[in-house]
Amino acid sequence: MRRLVRPLSRLLAPLTLLALAACAPAPIYKTSPNLVSAVPFQVASTPERYANGHVIWGGRIVAVHNLADRSEIEVLAFPLDSSQRPQVGDSGNGRFIAVMHGFVEPMDYPEGALMTLTGTLAGSRAGKVGEADYVFPLVTVDQAHRWTQQELQSGRSNVHFGIGVGVGIH
Prior knowledge:
Elements: H1 2-22, H2 40-45, E1 54-66, E2 70-77, E3 95-101, E4 114-129, E5 132-146, H3 149-153
Parallel strand pairs: 3-5
Antiparallel strand pairs: 1-2, 1-4, 2-3, 4-5
């Protein structure tokens, strides 16, 4: 019996992982070989090194500022999962400013919402976070996506392993 259980468990473990991975949605933006792998706080320290680099970044919207010819969205960056959804459980990767042409309706990009974007690094700007001085990388946005709660939950397994009693409210 033991001889049968061991090979069976070796076969089931990879199949289970494959099935769970298949549930995850595909990335929303296509990656390219010239994609900058640095995160905002790294870019802020040496912005000239990354000038005109292409990024796929995401995070939590802090504020929207509409100006005469463009809108700027301040974003607290988070790592992205394999579907390019921000992983807010991780520590932040710094802040950046997403520069979008024209007017952006603040209700479409509310404070606290999560977004992912693709764009080109366009230098940096000194500013403040509260009373602290801060350097914000600027990203000229090509495409932006604000995540809905339903999209954030899709593809995530409802199977949880653990010991004890738990209550889940969705």
